[in-house]
Amino acid sequence: MRSFVRYVLGVLVTVLILCAGITTLWGWAWGLGLLALFMGAVAARDAWKLQTLHHWLQEQQLSPGYQPGRTWEQVFGRLHSLERRIDENQARRQEAIERFQQVLTLLPSGIVILDQTHRILWCNPAAESHLQVHLEQDRGQSLPYLIRQTEFQNFLDRKPAPDHRCILHRRSQQDISLALQLIPYSAQERMLVTQDITQWERDEKVRRDFVANVSHELRTPLTVLGGFIETLQNSGPLPLATRERIFQTMETQTDRMRRLVEELLSLSRLESQTGVAPFTSIPLSALLSQMLQMASQLSQGQHTLDTQGHFDRRTLLGIEAELVSAFGNLVANAVRYTPPGGQITLSWREEGGEGVFSVQDTGIGISAEHIPRLTERFYRVDQARSRDTGGTGLGLSIVKQIALHHDLTLTIDSQPDKGSTFALRFPAHRLGLPENDPA
Ligand SMILES: Nc1ncnc2c1ncn2[C@@H]1O[C@H](COP(=O)(O)OP(=O)(O)OP(=O)(O)O)[C@@H](O)[C@H]1O
Ligand SMILES: [Mg+2]
Q1: Looking at the CA of 385, which ligand is closest?
Q2: Closest to 183 (Cα-Cα) out of 121, 261, 114, 100
C-alpha cells in the first residue's frame, strides 16, 4: 500500500513539475492542456482495464493483448489467487461430497431421509433393497403409503429420538427382518436407519433351539436317575433282581448322558476349528479294518458285513481321529438302523481322481423329506426309535463338521424300507500317494 502511495505521489509530482515547466515556457494554456491530456490518458487506460476486468470476471479469461500495469497487475493478481483458492475449495468440497456419497452407497445399513410428512427425500441402495422402494420413482412418495404395516406407521408417528427403534418383518419374495431407528436430523427432516437382522434372528433361533434340545435330552435320564435314587432311599430292602435291574437302568442312563456330553464337546471343538485340517497320511486299509471290527462288535453277529474296492495301498490325508469318528458314525448308524439279518457294505472307489468311501445298508431307509435335515443338530427321523437305541441325533452333525474341515462332500441316498448309502467324497488333494510308491 505504501509503495502504491509513493508511486501515485511520484507520478503526480512529475506531471505537476512538467506542467509548471511548460506553463513557464509557453504559458497557462499549454500547461493546462498537457495536464488535461495526461488526465484523459489515465482515465482511458483505467476504462480499458476495467473493461478487461469485466470481461475476465464474465468469461473467466483475460482479453487477448492484455498488458498488466503496476496497480492493475496487483488487483488482477489478487483476484486471480482468490479465484484459484475458490476453485481449490470447491474441488475439495466436491471430492468430500463424492466420497461421502460413495460411503453411503456402500454402507450395509439403509438410510432414508424423510421430510416431516414422511415423504422420501433421498435414500441409499441398501435402504432401497431393505424397504423395496426405488428412489428414482418413489422420491417424494409417502413411505407409510408404500409400506402399509400398522407397526411401521405407528413407529413413524412417534416422536423421533435416538433410542427410538422397532423390528419390522417384511414378507415378500424373500422374508426379511429389519431393525429400524428414527433419528431427528434437522427441524424439517428425519433420518430412518434400517439394518438387516434376518441372519442374526436365525442364529438366535438356532441357539435357543440348541439350548432347549440339550436341556430336553438331559432331563429324561436325570428324571429316571432321580426316580431310582428316591426308590432306593425310601423303600426297604429290595429283591436282588429288582436292584440289579435298577442299577442296570441307572448305568444306561448315565452312559447316555456321558455320550451326549462327549458328543457335544466334540461338536463344539469341531465347530470352533478354523482353517483346513492338516495333511497327515493315514493308511486306508488300517482305517477300514478298524471300521469293520467296530461294525462286527456293534452288530454282534446280527448282520452280514463286507467290504468292496481296492484300498490296500491308498492313503488319506487328514486328521486320523476325525476321520475315524466320521467313518465310525456312518458305520454305527448303518448297524443301528438295519434290522437283524440285513447287510452292511463298506466300500472304496476312485473316479476322476477323487475317492469315495461309502457305507451301504439294507436297513429301514429314510424318506426324501428328511434327508436335507439329517445333519442338523439333534435331528432324528423317528425321535422315539432313535432315543430307544441310544441315539442323540448329533452323529451326522459331527460327520458334517469333519467333512467341512477336510473339504469332503457328504452325500446321502436312501429309500424307505430298502436301505441307505452314506458316502464321503475325498477330493484329489486329500488322497495320498499309494503306500510305498516313489513320488
Ligand atoms: N443308515 C441309516 N438308516 C436310516 N436312518 C438313518 C441312518 N443314519 C441316520 N439315520 C437317521 O438320521 C438321524 C440322525 O442320525 P445321527 O447319526 O445324527 O443321530 P443318531 O444316530 O440318532 O444319534 P447319535 O448322535 O448317537 O449318532 C437318525 O436319528 C436316523 O433317524
Ligand atoms: Mg448316529
Answers
A1: 1
A2: 114
For 236-260, give one letter per residue: b (16+ CB within 10 A) or e: eeeeeeeeeebeeebeebeebbeeb
Q: How far is residue 130's CA from residue 109's CA, in Å, rounded to a whole number?
A: 9
Question: What pLDDT score was predicted for residue 69?
Answer: 61
Distance (Å, whole) CA 419 – CA 413: 9
What is the domain partition of the chain in residue ranges?
A: 2-102, 107-196, 205-271, 280-432
**CATH number assigned to the domain with residue range 205-271, chosen from the 4 options 1.10.1200.10, 1.10.287.130, 1.10.357.140, 3.40.30.10:** 1.10.287.130
**230-265 per-position pLDDT tens digit:** 888 888 888 889 889 999 999 999 998 999 999 999
Task: Report the pLDDT averaged over residues 275-301.
Answer: 94
Cell of 337: 438302523
CATH fold of the domain at 280-432: Heat Shock Protein 90 (3.30.565)
**Residue 432 · residue 316 · CB < 8 Å:** yes
Specify the amino acid at residue 127: A
Q: What CATH class has 107-196? A: alpha beta
pLDDT tens string 57-114:
777 666 666 666 666 777 777 888 888 899 999 999 999 989 988 888 889 999 999 9
SS percent in the chain: helix, strand, coil, step 5: 55, 20, 25
Ligand 1 within 6 A of 333 CB? yes
Residue 78 backbone phi and psi in degrees, to 5: -60, -50
Phi, psi of 239 (to 5 degrees): -60, 150
pLDDT, position 385: 64
**Backbone φ/ψ region at 299: left (φ over 0), alpha (ψ -120 to 50), beta:** alpha
CA 12 to ligand 1 centroid distance, Å: 112
Mutate to test the pocket of ligand 1, among 261, 294, 299, 337 (most ligand atoms within 8 A of CB): 337
Q: What single letter denotes the amino acid at residue 14?
A: T
Q: How far is the CA of 1 from the centre of ligand 1 (A)?
A: 97
CB 326 less than 6 A from any atom of ligand 1? no
How high is the pLDDT of residue 71?
A: 66
pLDDT at 217: 86
